[in-house]
From TrEMBL:
GO terms for molecular function: glycosyltransferase activity. CDD domains: GT4_PimA-like. InterPro entries: Glyco_trans_1 (IPR001296). It comes from the Bacteria. Residues 223-373 form the Glycosyl transferase family domain. Pfam families: Glycos_transf_1. This is Glycosyl transferase family 1 domain-containing protein.
């Protein structure tokens, strides 16, 4: 069967940067990301939110790579930047979504997302074949956001996402079971189509981690790391900072390194108020791949205190380095981590207690190194690509079937 003769559009709420020449830039969606879709499709049209590249400061551009390229172009949803734009520019938003759909043979819609909801609805109206990638729990994200508006919107956004995911003809879940229970599908469903794929690490990675653990002494500085954009609340930076303060109060000599783009001033103020400014470092962005792995290899713990999370790419990457990982009891993290390494959202005391207990037990740290390293193999590129190909081929066959 001939492949790569169709154009697919991709919809998501993520924000890219766009310059005056029409080039788009992203940290999480660089050009090489789209190769997963170009393996089955001739062209990809990307429809997301966007901000002006020229007006962003140099610091806010760090880590961004060009997203468009050969066979990948962007038809951005420029009219939608904030939720209230739905009230004032709804018709324009719909026109932009329909334009991308009309120019493509089918769509891949990443959900939960507002643009995703609208793209699903318009796809059904246009009788356009589409598949959905389910990557997070909308209720968790909005409910845990920390304000009244989020709690009011949580059940509404959750219900609407659930409605359209159920109506989608083809659905890819990043989890084995968790997301499927929250957002069941009446269509053809594929499990374990993670939005993460790792190259097989060298055997030296685990060996070096064990050496590091064996050489640990009570005088060693415990280095904790986390990754998350500083301009969003859902990554839980404040929880991590407060947990470090609690660890210091327990007598632990530790430091926290935070990787991520954005303004760190508010978090730096929190560190100052807690008296731990010297114990927290804001590293800005680090290029993905080798640079991130080299940084992780220096850490003792990786933490992900998010209020919502899918698998968490950085969590799986940290596990692949044999790192001890402690994270919120949410989303796909429930499948990746044991209960003893998870804490309730925002509970920095529980988070600090888990880290403290692991520090005190070298055998447990070594056990976690082996366990996490082995678990990460599930996300090796060849395993994930096999599942994704099944999803994409089903989408292609539906386009051929429906003409």
């Amino acid at each position: 069967m001939e492949r790569k003769k169709f154009t697919v559009s991709f919809f998501h709420d993520t924000v890219l940067l766009c310059d005056s020449n029409g080039n788009h830039y992203s940290i999480h969606f660089p050009y090489h990301f789209w190769q997963r879709y170009l393996s089955c499709f001739k062209k990809v049209i990307v429809s997301t939110r966007c901000n002006n590249y020229e007006t962003c400061g140099v610091k806010n551009k760090k880590g961004y790579e060009q997203s468009n390229g050969e066979d990948v172009r962007h038809l951005s949803i420029v009219s939608y930047k904030k939720l209230y734009d739905l009230f004032f520019d709804y018709k324009k938003i719909i026109e932009e979504i329909r334009n991308a759909l009309i120019n493509s043979d089918c769509a891949i819609i990443r959900m939960p997302s507002i643009i995703g909801i609208l793209a699903c609805r318009e796809s059904l109206k246009l009788k356009k074949t589409f598949g959905v990638e389910v990557v997070a729990n909308a209720f968790e994200g909005y409910w845990n956001y920390g304000n009244i508006a989020g709690k009011l919107l949580a059940p509404i956004i959750h219900f609407i996402n659930k409605y359209y995911i159920k109506k989608a003809p083809i659905v890819a879940y990043i989890t084995s079971e968790y997301m499927q229970k929250i957002y069941p599908s009446n269509g053809i469903a594929f499990a374990d189509v993670a939005n993460i794929s790792l190259e097989v690490p060298s055997h030296d990675v685990l060996a070096n981690r064990i050496v590091k653990l064996v050489n640990y002494t009570n005088d060693s500085i415990v280095l904790i790391g986390m990754i998350g954009a500083l301009n969003v609340k859902f990554k839980g930076h404040a929880t991590a900072i407060r947990a470090v303060k609690a660890l210091i109060d327990k007598g632990v000599n530790c430091k926290l390194q935070i990787v991520g783009e954005g303004d760190s001033s508010n978090l730096a103020d929190l560190c100052y108020k807690l008296g731990i400014s010297k114990n927290v470092q804001f590293l800005g962005t680090i290029p993905s791949g080798k640079c991130v792995f080299d940084w992780m290899d220096k850490l003792d713990f990786y933490v992900q205190p998010s209020i919502t999370e899918a698998h968490g790419r950085a969590v799986i990457e940290a596990m692949s380095r044999g790192l001890a990982v402690v994270a919120s009891d949410i989303g796909g993290l429930k499948e990746s981590l044991c209960k003893t390494e998870r804490f309730q959202v925002g509970d920095y005391e529980e988070m600090s207690n888990i880290i403290y207990d692991i520090i005190q037990n070298q055998d447990r740290r070594i056990e976690l190194a082996y366990r996490n390293y082995e678990y990460s193999k599930k996300f090796h590129e060849e395993n994930i690509e096999e599942q994704r190909k099944l999803f994409l081929n089903e989408l292609v066959m539906n386009v051929e079937k429906n003409g």
